[in-house]
Amino acid sequence: MSFFKKLFGGGSKGETGPKILGETTVDGLRIVAIEMRAGQEYQLCGRIERTHENGDLDAVQFIRADKLTSAEMAEKATLAKGEQIIRERGKSLFDGGENV
After folding, report:
1. pLDDT above 90 covers what percent of the chain?
2. Which of 37, 38, 44, 99 falls 20 to 30 Å from 69 in CA-CA distance?
3. pLDDT (average), residues 11-31
4. 28: left (phi over 0), alpha (psi -120 to 50) or beta
5. What's the CATH code, domain 18-94?
């Protein structure tokens, strides 16, 4: 994709959001590992989601400086980090902003 397409949001019509590497559920919260490239490496990036009974969705995103050499390693590390965040902060992690 050319520089201008990236800059102004153009691209093929089939493009979607970030690629999901994997997901799991811990204590009723969904952890999603998201692909985030840093050159030839993958950066640890994920989202923790809570769905309310009425269908509303709360989500917080976390990004760490960790760089990993494969998508599989990034997925495992991201899901483990998400689980650690949930164990440490529980559902109170949704009380503050959008990022952890």
Report:
1. 68
2. 99
3. 84
4. left
5. 3.30.160
- Judged by DSSP in three states, 86 sits in helix
Q: Hey, what's the torsion of the CAs at 77, 82, 84, 86, to 10 degrees?
A: -170
Separation between Cα atoms, residue 91 and residue 89, nearest integer Å: 6
Cα(81)–Cα(78) distance, rounded to whole angstroms?
5
User: pTM surpassing 0.90?
Assistant: no
Chain-centroid distance, C-alpha 60? 9
Q: What Rg, from alpha-carbon coordinates, does the chain have?
A: 15
Residue 64 tokens read as 């760490």
